[in-house]
Amino acid sequence: MGKKLKINSMSQTNGEDQSKDYRTLDQIWGDEGLSKYKTFHEDEYQKNLSDMTDSDLTAHAVKLGFVPTPDRQILKKRLLGEFKKYIAQFSRAEKPVEKTKVSKEALRILSEGR
Questions:
Q1: How many CB atoms neighbour CB 2 within 10 A?
Q2: Do residues 23 and 91 lie in contact, with contact meaning Cβ atoms separated by under 8 Å?
Q3: Triad 42, 44, 46: Cα angle to 5°
Q4: What's the whole-model pTM score?
Q5: What share of the chain is helix, strand, coil (3-state, %, to 5)?
Q6: Whole-number Å distance between alpha carbons of 1 and 11
Q7: N or C: which end of the chain has fewer CB within 10 A?
C-alpha cells in the first residue's frame, strides 16, 4: 500500500471540465456561436442591421426563423431582442468556488473507512 492521503489534501469534483469554458452543447461540438449572427457584440450587430437594405433585413429575419414585418423598426427591435437572448446563452454568471466546512464528527466517521 502507498502513502495514505489526508482528507485536507483531497478535493471534491462536480464533473465539469474546468480546462475549457463550454457554456452550450454547440460549443462542445465545435461551434463557438458565431455561425448565427457573426458577432457577439451588440453594437456591431446593430450596425449590421442598420447597414442592411429592407430586402436584406427580411432575408435575415427569414433565415433566423422570423415572419418579417413590413415595419423596419419593429423588425430590427425583434431581431435585436433575439440577438440578446442568443448572446445570454454564451455568458454565465461566475459562481464562486465554495469550500465546505466539515465537522470533526464527519471527519471521524470518514476516517473509520481507512
A1: 4
A2: yes
A3: 70
A4: 0.54
A5: 50, 0, 50
A6: 21
A7: N
Which cell goes with 23? 457554456
Closest CA to 59 of 48, 88, 21: 48
Taking the CA atoms of 23, 28, 34 and 39 in sequence, report the sign of the dihedral they define: positive
The C-alpha cell 466517521 sits at 109
DSSP letter for 113, please: T
pLDDT digits (tens, 9 = 90+) for 2-43: 677 677 776 666 665 566 665 666 666 666 666 678 888 899
Interior angle at CA 35, CA 30 and CA 41, nearest 5 = 110
The C-alpha cell at 33 is 456561436
Q: How far apart are CA 14 and CA 109, in angstroms?
A: 23
Contacts of 106 (CB under 8 A, 6+ apart): none
First to last CA, the chain: 12
